[in-house]
């Protein structure tokens, strides 16, 4: 079994690595190709890259924020899971809103509704009780 220190270091390294790789891929595609050259599959992968970039940086920041407290350092895997969920939700929100904006089908009502749904999902996961 890995020690808590190993879990923390591997988690931080993995999140930084995924952020760097996905951000480099997104920036490379942004400056090298046009949307017409990318095609539908390339544009889909570009949005997935945005999801991974934003999600990993939010997860990394949340994980580092939680590690400031001793009780979270003792349960690093639980703190990582919570941070990954939050990072995925924020990354998913940013990518969907960017995709809707690029399709010119985004209004302020859509933004508010989508963000409210994400907040409700996050509140649900933070307040649910574990069943034994």
Entry summary:
By secondary structure, the chain is an all-alpha fold. Helix content is 86%, strand content 0%. The two termini are 24 Å apart.
Jot down its keywords.
5 helices, mainly alpha, 132 residues, 0% strand
Overall pLDDT: 90
- Low-pLDDT residue intervals, each spanning 5 or more residues: none
| H and E string | HHHHH
Number of beta strands: 0
- Secondary structure class reads mainly alpha
Helical content band: over 70%
**Biggest sheet details:** none
Instruction: Evaluate the radius of gyration.
Output: 17 Å
Distance between the termini: 24 Å
Beta content: under 5%
Number of helical elements: 5
Overall shape: it is flat
Task: Describe it.
Helix 1 (4-32) runs antiparallel to helix 2, helix 2 (35-66) packs antiparallel against helix 4 and helix 4 (76-102) packs antiparallel against helix 5. The protein starts with a helix and ends in a 5-residue tail after the last helix. The model has no long low-confidence stretch (mean pLDDT 90). The protein is built from five helices and no strands. By secondary structure, the chain is an all-alpha fold.
How are the elements arranged and paired?
Layout: H1 4-32, H2 35-66, H3 70-74, H4 76-102, H5 108-127
Helix pairs in contact: 1-2, 2-4, 4-5
